[in-house]
Every structure is written in C-alpha cells, then in structure tokens.
C-alpha cells in the first residue's frame, strides 16, 4: 500500500477565504442589507448552474447512440487540457478561433502568480534574509536582500506592482461571473462551459453606440476590451519589475525552500512575460494549453469522427475534479462507454488545495479505486493517463526526493523509470483488486501539454474505445 507523509504543520493555517467570508460583528444595517443581497444573487447563480447541470444530464440520456467518454480525475490533473487536445485534433479551427478569449485567463494566471510571490515574501521573507546573511556575507547591494539596499528593492518592487496586483480580483470576478464555490480550495476561479460567451465584454468601440456587447472572441474584440486594455498597459509598464521580482535571490531561495509554491502554469507564463506583455499579444495554442481555470460541474464537448468513412458523434464530458465537485459526476456514469482517468504523477510532493492534509497522489489513487469499484462502471472501457510526466522528470532532476513525501517509496532509486513504475504499479494493483470481471486497463504515460505525443496517444485510445463500443453494440 502506498503511504504518504502528512503535510508538515508549519505550512498549515486557517483557510483565509472562509475567514474573510464571515460577517463582521460590527456590520451596519446597510452593510448587512448589501451582504444579504449578494447572498441572494449567489444563490440565484447557483440555482442557474443546477438547472444547467440538470439539462446536461437530460441531453446525456437522449444521446444513447453516440460514443460517450468521461474525463475523470482530481483537480489540476489535466482533464480540461486533454479536452483541448481532443478539440485541437478534431476541430482545430474552433480552438484557434478561441485563442483571443484566453487572454483574460493568461493575464489572471500571471497576476495571481505575482501575488503568490509577494505574499510569500511577506510571510517568509525574514527566513530568507537570515539565510542569505550566512551565505553571501560580501555580496553587493544591488538585488541582494541581505543588504538594506536589497530589502528596499523588494519593497520598491512591491510598491510598483501594487496597481497590477489590484486587478487580480477584477479579472477573477469577470471570469467567474461573481460565482464563489465552497469546498473547492481558496484560490479557485471556477467556470462553466461556455464561459467565453458569458464573460462578454464592454468594448470601447461599442460604448455609447447602443450596440450589443462584443463576445471578446477575436483579437480585435480583446483589443477593444477596456479591462484587458488596462491590464495589458499595466503589464507593459511592469514588465521589467516582474522579471526582477521573478529573478530576485530572495524569491529563488523561498522557491527552493518550498515556502513559495508556483504552480506549473505560473512558472510557464512568468518565464514568457516579455512576450505576454507585448502590445497586441494574442495567446498561442501553447498558451491556451497552459492556461489554468478550474472546471465546475460537467462540461459537454461534441465532435465528429470518421470511423470507416462513417461520421460518428462523440460526446466528451470534462468534469470539475475538486472534492466539492465530484458529486456531479455520478449521473453520467450509467451510460458512459469509456473513461479516461487522469492522474498527475508529478504531484507526489503536493497536497490538495481543498484539503491541505491529503497528499495528491494518495487522493488520486483513492479516487481511482472508487471509480474501479463502481458497479455502474464495471463494463466501461477504462484508460489511465499517468500525466504530467514532464514535470515529474523535472522535479526528479532537481533532486526532489519521492521518499520524503511518499514514505512507502523507501530506498528505491529516485530516477524517472523507478518512480513512474512505482506509481504505475500502485494504480494497476488498485484496478486489479477492484475488478472482479476481466476488464482490461489501458495505461499511458503522458504529458498532455505536449501536442505531438498526446495526439498520437489520443488517436490510439480513440480507436480502441471505438472498437470496444462496436463490440458492445453487437452484443446488445
Ligand atoms: N507541464 C504540464 N502541465 C500540465 C500537464 N497537464 C496539465 N497541465 C497544466 O495543469 C493545469 C491544470 O490542468 P487542467 O486541465 O486545467 O486540470 P483539470 O483536471 O481540468 O482541473 P479541474 O478543472 O480543476 O478539475 C493547466 O495549467 C495545464 O496546462 C502536463 O502534462 N504537463
Ligand atoms: Mg478542468
């Protein structure tokens, strides 16, 4: 059995989000009235979402002759990214047409990363200053947080970046439509499918002309969106400061000590900041694949595949993977033909955002065992993607030891082959012990941001799912 270490208590703390949501004991009548109004609005949005989920379920039931594929797995495992790869393979023009609408997500990801770094410096900076004192007794003033000059440079950077960081919440509100989700972790911005249309924008071009709102889907529209124009300008001004902050020795130290944790997409976008901050920036397909936004509920995507020159409709269901979202999956189980379960095997040193005590690999294995044991799913074609292998390789190359987080890993060799095989063995074992029938488990090691390799795997998986589908249809 796989045993994981609990998270060190020093990293734990109260969830600041739920704390912030408590009404103040000094609330005035006016404040109480506005709070209650906001709560009514939140309930209205939540009811709308419930209605949408109900309608999706009804559509799901009506579409029995189509191939139905569920993408399951914990939050951040890569389900929506895999969905984008399906879209890229079967409907590349539609993903290309969406590129401009991802600009707001990329901007949000960048600014969220900057705030994460600034918060980390605020909370843990004192540790690094002491540490750097010991290591760099003779270093020069510039950029060295050991010296009064260096410390003030962090203070200056914080000041210069204040205006940019202040728009984080505005972007989050635009993306989520003001929707807040409980039980989903403290940093999440959640979206339902079709968010590109729902986050319609006021354009300067349309202002005062009584025109309908623009969809924000073309580069032109994004260029006219007041909020995006403002954020783009702030990014251009702050570009050098962002680079200085990212490369600051204090930040490097805190990242090494894991006091600041930058998610993979944050690192990706911060490293590309010069390109993103350029005038007229439009996200590339690679940016779209890296952009991170959490899925809420179950989003349906359809596409047509030519099998033996016959068009077959596929319905792909991309689910929200956070614990608070998993109850929405079950209604889609009874008619599913296939599941791709996505497990991020790079996450051995990470903990669930929604439950900071639980190791993410441990959670992924537990969830997989529930899927395997579910009677409604006993005949589905089951595919396992051991995902984020690129990040696993990177972490191991940087010297992160698996046994520090997964105690049962013991003294095994800390290289990619041993580590990936160890995780694979556990997933296969879980399937075997929860599989009274003879269902086959198809396993692939993937990095779903890598288009070339992922497309090959998708074609292989898709054709094998379709063969199983035809076989089942012949038996009915
Ligand atoms: N480097 C790397 N990044 C990945 C890989 N797979 C996914 N990501 C990134 O991980 C982040 C999370 O991926 P998503 O596809 O949004 O995760 P999800 O499973 O849909 O998450 P929820 O919607 O919250 O359930 C995105 O920024 C992706 O670009 C991978 O194999 N390698
Ligand atoms: Mg998703």
TrEMBL record:
Domain of life: Eukaryota
A GO cellular-component term linked to this record: heterotrimeric G-protein complex
Keyword annotations: GTP-binding, Magnesium, Metal-binding, Nucleotide-binding, Transducer
InterPro entries: Gprotein_alpha_su, GproteinA_insert, P-loop_NTPase
Sites where the protein binds Mg(2+): 295
Binding site for GTP: 289-295, 387-390
Transmembrane spans: none
GO terms of biological process kind: adenylate cyclase-modulating G protein-coupled receptor signaling pathway
GO terms of molecular function: G protein-coupled receptor binding; G-protein beta/gamma-subunit complex binding; GTP binding; GTPase activity; metal ion binding
SMART domains to which the protein is assigned, alphabetical: G_alpha (SM00275)
Region (Disordered): 1-24, 202-224
Signal peptide annotation: none
Protein name as it appears in the record: Guanine nucleotide binding protein, alpha subunit
Source organism (scientific name): Thelephora terrestris
